[in-house]
Write a structure and sequence with these properties.
The protein has a 12-stranded mixed beta sheet, sandwiched between helices. The chain is globular, with a radius of gyration of 21 Å. It contains 9 helices and 12 strands. Helices cover 32% and strands 31% of the residues. β4, α3 and β5 form a beta-alpha-beta unit. The relative contact order is 0.15. With 317 residues, the protein is α+β, with helices and mostly antiparallel strands. The two termini are 29 Å apart. The chain folds into 2 domains: 154 residues, 3-Layer(aba) Sandwich (Aminopeptidase); 130 residues, 3-Layer(aba) Sandwich (Aminopeptidase), CATH 3.40.630.30.
Length: 317
């Protein structure tokens, strides 16, 4: 670590898409922060870089907010927009540059960008053990706790008998986009919308492979595998309501694990809502252990601006 012995020479860079140089700068800052804090960040850098490769165009929507001191990146906030009514926001500041208003400055720009988007909600993410992150979010007018997710890594390979399953994973094609959107609406308790549907063949180019799970050629669920980084990720695993209670969830999970093992990933991880006891029990029985806890806080546009205008000072963080 180095100590600051000179005045800041700040510069803020804004980007729609993540490109290679920014990816390197953000990754280096992330490494410094993780080593110093011992907490977890959910920045989705590899996934975002995969989505951005080869893309260009005007700055119509800003997703990357970077604060530099000369040529050194010292602060960063990123927006992840997976479609739907919410965006996810996560970020960090170099340990030697904290308490200088850097994160507040970047977040002010994020709020301005959010106001231009259709998304009514903003999810702010913070590791449960990050005191600074938790305190910053709790100080934002209108912020409210939404939910908590565990990050889990597989510590022991699943027993061989767990791999015996009648479930077959079939790689999804663009023709399956509507079915994937329909299942997502079921699993997340949302209204089904065709707008903003995931396009499987485009997602695969970005490192996210979507599989439909079938039993005797009938679709019973799905799972998404993130192969964009050195660690393989399992996301979006679900079983249709009429097919539950038959062990199909275990079949999908073990098939997904085997797919990632074949690709020689250094680790395999997933994330799960802490209140989903059935999923937690399944994951633990297949060798996964909790490694970190991420809290999600939500801002709603109407509640956020109502909280500001009702504040005695009218201050905006």
């Amino acid at each position: 670590m180095f100590k600051i012995n000179k005045p800041l020479n700040p510069m803020i860079k804004l980007r729609k898409n993540l490109e290679r140089l920014s990816y390197t700068h953000i990754s280096n800052l992330q490494k410094i922060c993780l080593e110093h804090d011992g907490t977890v960040l959910k920045l989705e850098l590899d996934y975002k870089l995969g989505r951005a490769e080869g893309k260009s165009g005007a700055l119509k929507a800003i997703n990357e907010f970077m604060y530099y001191d000369d040529d050194t990146l010292v602060g960063y906030i990123g927006i992840c927009d997976f479609g739907g009514d919410q965006i996810e926001v996560n970020g960090m500041v170099h340990p030697e540059y904290r308490r200088k208003g850097i994160f507040k400055s970047l977040f002010s720009l994020v709020k301005d960008e959010w106001s231009k988007r259709k998304a009514e909600g903003m999810l702010l993410l913070s590791d449960r053990d990050s005191f600074a992150g938790q305190e910053f979010i709790k100080g934002i007018p209108g912020s409210a706790y939404n939910h908590t997710e565990y990050e889990m890594f597989i510590k022991n390979k699943p027993r061989q008998e767990l791999n015996m399953s009648e479930v077959v994973l079939r790689k999804a094609t663009n023709c399956d986009a509507r079915e994937i959107a329909r299942q997502n609406a079921i699993y997340f308790g949302e209204e089904f919308k065709e707008e903003g549907m995931l396009i499987p063949e485009e997602e695969e180019k970005c490192g996210m492979i979507i599989y439909l799970a079938e039993v005797r050629n009938n679709v019973i669920g799905k799972v998404h595998l993130d192969v964009s980084a050195s660690v393989g990720g399992i996301y979006g695993l679900g079983v249709l309501p009429e097919c539950r209670g038959k062990g199909y969830g275990r079949g999908i999970l073990t098939q997904a694990i085997q797919q990632l093992i074949k690709k020689n990933f250094k680790g395999i991880m997933l994330q799960v809502n802490v209140k989903n006891e059935n999923a937690l029990n399944l994951y633990r029985s297949c060798g996964f252990e909790v490694t970190s806890t991420m809290d999600y806080y939500e801002l709603k546009k109407d509640g956020f601006y109502r909280a500001i205008f009702s504040s005695p000072s009218g201050m905006i963080l």
